[in-house]
Amino acid sequence: MDELRLVQVADLHLGARQEHHLDNWLKVSDWIVRERPDLVVVNGDLIMGDPDNDADHAFARSRIEQLPVPCRYLPGNHDIGDNVVSGKMAKRVNDARRERFLKHFGEERWAFAKAGWGFVGINSQLLGSDGQPAEDEQWTWLERTLREQEGQPIALFLHKPLFLDHPSEPDHEDPTLRQSCIDSVSRTRLLDLCRRHGVRLVSTGHKHQTRSFSLDGIYYLWAPSTACVNSPPTTLHWGTREVGFIDYRFRRGGFDHRIVGADFLFRHENYIRKYGSASE
Ligand SMILES: [Fe+2]
Ligand SMILES: [Fe+2]
Asked: Are 39 and 8 in contact (CB under 8 A)?
């Protein structure tokens, strides 16, 4: 049977001089070496600290490129800055930061078809980024790409979840919640395209929480981080507070998934190390 085994890793948070989570990445790498999936999708927050730190990008690249399988890359807020500037990431996405990511990882969006599915990855950090030309370019590319992939189920990958509770929710006042998901205008436009062109799965990272549900014919999967969990246990959470990654198998007519790693990775509690200034 024609099948694509796709492993999504997200929120690796690798840093040149911040090796807090490298132990987990080495365990994930060992697992991938043993299991040999067809493809690894690296869904954002590859680096730990600073979107302007070339050394962090180079370090993350040097670690990820040791994997013996093809990888596709998408950026997160730690890699290229955020669309919502907040204490979580006080740097805004811009062309220079995108160029740095492109220099190290070679892409910020992509599309391909395999095993009866269309696969599309986009740069979530450009959504709602205040009229940057690159945002318009991506919308144009996405509309054309989804049209081209139509006729088969489509899996969409991006770093940030589309919403926290429901697609109809307004933009959150609290900056931490606001930067947790896509803004309402971009979300409405994106979901309209998803429904029109047959998107069946939206696979995201960013929240360092595991969650899976379906709504109106679309499955939404939040991937855990391979690195750590964030925020104190008493903080409001939407998904399960665990570490790990997603092992997908796509085939004509459907897909399977399982969350892997919670039983063999360290559940690093990021807030303990950064007590008083947690970062996501
Ligand atoms: Fe993250
Ligand atoms: Fe993130």
From this structure: no
Distance CA 138, CA 141 (A): 5
Distance in Å, CA 79 to ligand 2 centroid: 9
pLDDT in tens, 98-141: 999 999 999 999 999 999 999 999 999 999 998 899 999 999 99
Q: Burial code of 41-54, b = ≥16 C-beta within 10 A, e = fewer?
A: bbbbbbbbbbbebe
Domains of the chain: 3-273 (3.60.21.10)
Tell me what the pLDDT averaged over the chain comes to. Answer: 94
> How many angstroms is it from 277 CA to the middle of ligand 1?
14
Ligand 2 mean position, distance from CA 51 (Å): 12
Instruction: Report which bound ligand comes closest to the CA of 81.
Output: 2
